[in-house]
Design a protein that fits this description.
heterodimer, A: 255 residues, alpha/beta, six-stranded mixed sheet, four-stranded antiparallel sheet, 9 helices, 35% helix, 26% strand, B: 320 residues, mainly alpha, 2 strands, flat
């Protein structure tokens, strides 16, 4: 069996007294599209943020492509926290797209996509520019390269954000409600880019409320509630024939 | 009616404005008061305008202006460099650095600048020699304090170190004004903390930091008059006071120094207003231009402002 791209074991996360993740296991195979559904406050965004160390787990472990995230395990099984530089290096291989885009407002679309290539991957400016131009073209924004984020629509900003993450040649892409902050007529253009990405074989973990996208693109759907995985499987099973009462209840509200 | 042919609003309202008699009354009162003030200035022989005119261009006075400008900009440079270091220390994960920064700001904001300047003037009495070495151990290099720290350097250090404490708070507020999502996005791309600060946070914080720093510069210009506490005796205030005392004519020399301070402040204010316009604060940038809307030039600062990732802080004006 191949090494899973994502392997979460017994994930617990406490924010003070608030127990947000209560023992989550998740496995995502290479090339798989995993959609995480669930009501707000179910812990799905927290789980996603733990996959690239934006939040640190209180208990359990995350492995990306077999590599333990955030720690080094010695021969006795003792964990040693990694140096921030090493963690930054791990993060550079994991792409993330945020609900509120978080583009750098003082840089044009092109500069946004070039920035981390130059600063983190130490690519030459020319190489970074070529890559950025190619990716912006791929997300359909070759005519908006020299615009600042404030001059772009929400859908365009989110597509730049996807290009910015892809520029790092990530092994996996994480999407945290990528269409929730968009006007309804702009959702389609972002989902189209994501479908294209999925068709290209990218491993993706997507937290979303877009049931249609989940049904059409996901290989694997996870339904979370109150910090645990309630039900998971193929979209045809989880979405169209849910076994659990809580899943049915949630789907009846969003569909 | 050729006018209506071009007017896109066919039923444009032409109404008479509300009568504002108060404005005319106020204007009349101001004119009378101003005339009284000018009369009082010009006809009173004690102002000795002949002495004012003669000393406005006096060599000692002009040199004083030079020293005052040198102290102002020199201490601001020291202040800005130290303030950035202090503000970054204040944000650090390292509790030692955080408390050192806190202590520095607490001490230098908590004691009067005058007291600090007297202290810097007395440093060669307190420590006749300065040496680099191991505490309680051998010393490698030794200086005569009064040779290294002259009155000028004592004044410059005193002003700069004090200003750093105020500027540090401005820089800290600026860094804190940048949306946390910006750091998070940069972190998710694998950037290191230093790169995030340098490439992402500071460029956006400049909008919030630079305008009050210009304000601090204007304030510093006048604070330099306190260097007589060191004592440093070449700046504008000391120079004009000395002449005034020698001539037994303090008033005309006070007018001379006030004139120069006002002139320099006016120049700095022009610079300040350009800075504020560049960084998109104030009303200048929002007001539509006369003669139709100008094609908006969308610059870097306008883009940061429009994105709203660095918030304006109404409590930022921190003047000693």
């Amino acid at each position: 069996m191949t090494t899973p791209m994502v392997e979460v074991r017994g994930a617990h996360k406490m924010f003070g007294d608030l127990h947000v993740l209560r023992g989550v296991d998740l496995t995502v195979a290479p090339g798989e599209v995993c959609v995480v559904l669930g009501p707000s406050g179910s812990g799905k965004s927290t789980l996603l943020r733990c996959l690239n160390e934006l939040e640190v787990l209180t208990g359990g472990s995350v492995r990306i492509d077999g590599e333990l995230l955030g720690y080094r395990e010695d021969a006795h099984g003792t964990l040693h926290r990694l140096h921030p530089t090493a963690i930054a290096q791990q993060r550079s291989r994991i792409g993330m797209v945020f609900q509120r885009f978080h583009l750098f407002p003082h840089m044009t679309a092109l500069e946004n996509v070039m920035e981390a290539q130059v600063q983190v991957l130490k690519r030459s400016k020319a190489a970074a520019r070529a890559k950025a131009v190619e990716l912006l073209d791929r997300v359909g924004l070759s005519d908006r390269m020299h615009h600042y984020p404030a001059q772009l629509s929400g859908g365009q900003q989110q597509r730049v954000a996807i290009a910015r993450a892809l520029a790092m040649d990530p092994e996996i892409m994480l999407f945290d409600e990528p269409t929730s902050a968009l006007d309804p007529e702009l959702v389609g253009e972002v989902l189209a880019v994501m479908k294209d990405l999925a068709a290209g074989g990218m491993t993706m973990v997507v937290v979303t409320h877009e049931i249609g996208f989940a049904r059409e693109v996901a290989d694997h759907v996870v339904f979370m509630d109150e910090g645990v995985v309630v039900e998971e499987g193929a979209p045809s099973a989880v979405i169209d024939a849910p076994a659990e009462e809580r899943t049915r209840d949630f789907l009846s509200h969003v569909l | 009616m050729s006018d209506t042919a071009h007017d896109p609003v066919p039923n444009r309202i032409h109404a008479r404005p509300v009568p504002r008699p108060g404005r005319w009354i106020a204007a009349a009162i101001v004119v009378v008061l101003a005339a009284m003030a000018v009369h009082g200035l010009v006809t009173n022989p004690k102002f000795r305008w002949d002495i004012v005119w003669a000393y406005l261009r006096d060599v000692t006075v002009i040199r004083g202006v030079g020293w005052t400008l040198l102290l102002t900009f020199g201490s601001m440079v020291i202040g800005v460099v130290l303030a950035v270091i202090l503000a970054i220390m204040r944000r650090s994960d390292n509790p030692v650095l955080r408390s050192v920064s806190w202590f520095y700001i607490w001490f230098f904001r908590g004691t009067p600048i005058y007291t600090q300047l007297v202290f810097w003037g007395l440093i060669s009495v307190l420590y006749p020699t300065l040496s680099l070495g191991i505490p309680f151990g051998p010393e490698f290099v030794t200086f005569q304090t009064d040779v290294v720290i002259t009155a000028f350097w004592a004044a410059l250090l005193g002003l700069g170190l004090n200003e750093a404490a105020y500027l540090a708070e401005i820089v800290r507020a600026g860094l804190g004004s940048v949306d946390k999502g910006q750091e998070e996005a940069a972190r998710a791309l694998g950037m290191k903390e230093r790169t995030i600060l340098r490439r992402i946070v500071i460029p956006q914080a400049m909008r919030v930091i630079v305008p009050p720093t210009g304000n601090e510069t204007i304030s510093m210009l006048k604070t330099t008059s306190l260097v007589l506490a060191v004592p440093f005796t070449l700046d504008l205030t000391y120079a004009t006071n000395a002449i005034g005392n020698r001539l037994f004519e303090p008033i005309p020399l006070l007018i001379v120094s006030a004139f120069w301070y006002l002139l320099i402040t006016s120049v700095l204010m022009v610079g300040q207003s350009y800075l504020e316009r560049y960084y998109g604060r104030g009303t200048g940038s929002e007001r539509p231009r006369r003669g139709g809307p100008r094609r908006p030039r969308f610059g870097r600062q306008a883009a940061i402002k429009a994105s709203g990732t660095a918030k304006d802080d109404p409590f930022l004006e921190v003047t000693p």
